[in-house]
Amino acid sequence: MHVTCGIDWAEDHHDVAVVDSDARMLGKLRISDDAAGFQDLLRLLAENGDSPDDPIPIPIPIAIETSRGFLAACLRASGRRVYASNPMAVARYRDRHVVSRKKSDHQDALVLANILRTDAQQHRPLPDDSDLARAIAVLARAQQDAVWDRTRAHNRLRSHLREYYPAILEAFADKRERLLAREARAILAIAPTPAEAARLTRSRLRAAVTRAGRQRRIDAETDHLLEVFRRPSLRQPALVEKAMGRQTLALLAQLDAACRACEDLARETEELFLQHPDAEIITSFPGLAVLSGARILAEIGDDRTRFGTARDLKAYAGSAPVTRESGKSRRVSHRRIKNSRLAETGRHWAFAALTASPGAHAHYNRRRDTGDRYHAALRRLFNRMLGQLHHCLTTHQKFDEAIGFAPPALPPLAAAA
Questions:
Q1: What Cα–Cα distance (Å) separates residue 151 from each residue in 79, 148, 154, 252, 262?
Q2: Which of 109, 287, 401, 403 has the fewest Cβ atoms surrounding its Cβ within 10 A?
Q3: What strands, in cross-sheet order, belong to the sheet with 13-19?
């Protein structure tokens, strides 16, 4: 008898439904999110044929709406197939069974169980990644989140400074990091208002620049900052300016915390990633450094059965185009439903590969010559290199420029000439 199980996940409890191949409910239960609740779940599954004592045990597959949390981790550790279903897809399945749009936790658990009963082959179970790969994923995603938090904190601070302190923005306008530079943050800490910046002495400003880590052209940079801060400019009323300076210190503290988190998480991610056996293969690709390589591994994992073909991986990353066809209408466009983290890393990877690989740059130029815009050409380059990465990881070999971007073969007549 084919039995499937569905679990409607919640924060403090979960609803469970077990059905057979004829859609008959074999059992339902509400369990708590703790060890006792997990034991209750195992007991219910055992009562319906999930026995680990069988000579060839076949655990009951389980569909759940999340891949995170203690319950999902324990189910994966038990060796059974766990399917993390998208809540939007579950809502579409619900309409197949209940046209009145009635909804309940128990009904959702039943829908999840029926999804596996009818369409299990259309869904992908959670990958069997190693603990090392999953740990790298935790750190790499946290570091990427910290980068996004840093960007938001930087933009908030910059927007605030434009209202009363444009001199600090002008002083670091030619710097690549702008307000993220250590010098800018060090000066803001001692002079959060234009009045305090104008009163800075040359020795104090020089000490701040040195303390921020600058080692060359210290005197020239100090003179430049003094000149900018002492220029005549529009000012807010003194009391308002002082209040805005206090707000700047609060925003600066948030930016400093985000910068420290980025640096600490990046260091720990790189250390852990270099311990993985696939790290050497991934970083052999042009444009992939240790941190970006860790982000790639975090999203694709190290379960090589997860993506049977390179086409599957490309669709998951959103680099492969999608075709929408109806009657005489046919439209090919880029995918919007994708792994956003992998797609974001892929854009940086393709851009960095332009200067690191002559073959990648030539491929990009060919795509531009055929009419592709900038982002489309980068996406196609990422699509090609992702296929190469899939091949190298599957065959356990490093990237070879001569093979990965071999010149196209000439036609027979041209070759003979």
A1: 40, 5, 5, 13, 11
A2: 403
A3: 25-32, 13-19, 4-9, 62-64, 82-84
* Domain range 4-126, CATH class: alpha beta
Is residue 4 within 8 Å of 120, Cβ to Cβ? Answer: yes
Q: Which of 170, 130, 153 is nearest to 300 (CA)?
A: 130
Q: State pTM to two decimals.
A: 0.85
Amino acid at 406: A
- State the Cα angle at 159 between 157 and 163, rounded to 5°: 110
The domain segmentation of the chain, as residue ranges, is: 4-126, 136-271, 280-404
Tens of each residue's pLDDT in the chain, 417 residues = 488 999 998 888 899 999 998 888 898 999 998 899 999 998 998 888 776 555 555 788 999 988 888 888 888 888 888 998 888 888 888 877 777 777 788 888 998 999 999 888 888 888 889 999 999 999 999 999 999 999 999 999 999 999 999 999 999 988 888 899 999 999 999 999 999 999 999 999 999 999 988 888 899 999 999 999 999 888 999 999 999 999 999 999 999 999 999 999 999 999 999 999 999 999 999 999 999 999 999 999 999 988 989 999 999 999 988 888 888 888 878 888 889 999 999 999 999 999 999 999 999 999 999 999 999 999 999 999 999 999 999 999 999 999 988 876 655 554 444
